[in-house]
Specification:
This protein is mostly helical. The protein is built from 13 helices and 2 strands. The radius of gyration is 24 Å and the shape is globular. Helix 1 packs antiparallel against helix 2, helix 6 runs antiparallel to helix 7 and helix 12 packs antiparallel against helix 13. The two termini are about 40 Å apart.
Length: about 475
Amino acid sequence: MAQYTKHPVTAPPTAPERESTGHILLRAYAIVVFIVAFAHAAVYNLVGELGAGVVMILLTLAAVAIGVPMIARADPHPFPWRRLPWVALGYVSLALISVAWSQWRFPTIITWVLLAAVTVNALLIAYALSWREIVRALASAFKWIIGLSLAIELWVSLVLHRPLLPFFADLPDGKIDAHWYWVRDNFVDGGRIQGIVGNSNLLAIVSLFAIVTFGVSFAARARWRTTLVLWTLLAAYLMVRASSATAYVCALAAAIVFVVALLIRRARTPRIRARIYMICGGIVIVVVAAVAVLHKPLLEALGRSADLTGRTDLIWTKVLERAATHPIFGNGFSSPWIPSDPSFDEWITDHHITVFHAHNMWLDVLMQLGVVGLVLMAIAYLTLLWRAWFFAADRPRWDLRADRPYSSLTILPLLFTVILLVQGLAESTPIMLWGWLLLILLSFKVKSVPLVGVGLSEQARVTERGHEPRRVP
């Protein structure tokens, strides 16, 4: 039985402040958005193209229904209009304006609606949730994706005993290309697995994001830390079984940046920081030069072809040729490409399947929105990288006190940004769906809330141990 003193000087205990049902539902909505964005291929394979579009429309309508009243009554805080990621929003505007000169107007309109939907959902999540809540929502979404990926792989291998096509369709007679399968039934025989997302490369990169998120949560002393370790091991296992060279390179880059950030955090004087920057900068230059010279043997060591699995000869050459026809403002926005449109249908094929992106975010942007779009995208990502670096490397400070402990959560935007930039060299996903969602979400959040647990949007929320939340009038 709980007991407390009745001494007149001591105030009676009060129950902890309960979280409102509305805020719990808001967090659940954020988890659903993350699941739909990161596992959009699974949604498509379940309900088809039309159904996936309806899901995104419903989520966007929900975001508008939730966000407009919150902004109108300034709940939980005034909307920071000046802190919006204006460069990224400028890219969205340019994509819409490109309808005027687009060589494929229907794909431009359809994919812009998707881009706008992702943007609206990302802005609402960044505005309505604290840093800790965003990390928790990401962790929950990754747990669902990883758990369902393992479940569907086990079900296909142990129960179905045959590959699985999208929409659970029956296998046709004769041999079909393995790239058509949703799950290839490789879990037992040791081949590359695809999980619920239906793509080995995507499963590997999602697993890498999950490892980073679980690791940050563990360091932030989240609840159920033993369970977090198990989830991390499972994510690592799926990443290895997916066997994606791109994900391995992203993991290496993130690990290097993580080590450098830790060294900067431990530097006691500006002179030591400068030395670390100089040494690490020199190492990066040497590594980049070595990769440029030795990329062929390195790719062979990773089990990949020297032309990056057909990218340089099959895809990038044709994309550059089309980009050269309209170099300034591009041919028109379309991320992803619409395979059924005559402009893309069988333009570039791989294993008899029409390719739906350039497998390089920069070439994709150049072809679609030209040099103008390329500059906007570069500024958007480099600005995020700049802010994310100092968000992670600088000690939290808003007054004369300079000895506050670092927050573990501040490392997540930096590692996510590095992974996106490295992946963008071989994939176009950083400019669409979950890649774009992360760009908008992290850009807006880092810009509007540069200190975890401090500021209007972090008031009355659980903050990291050692931090002192400050109420701003």
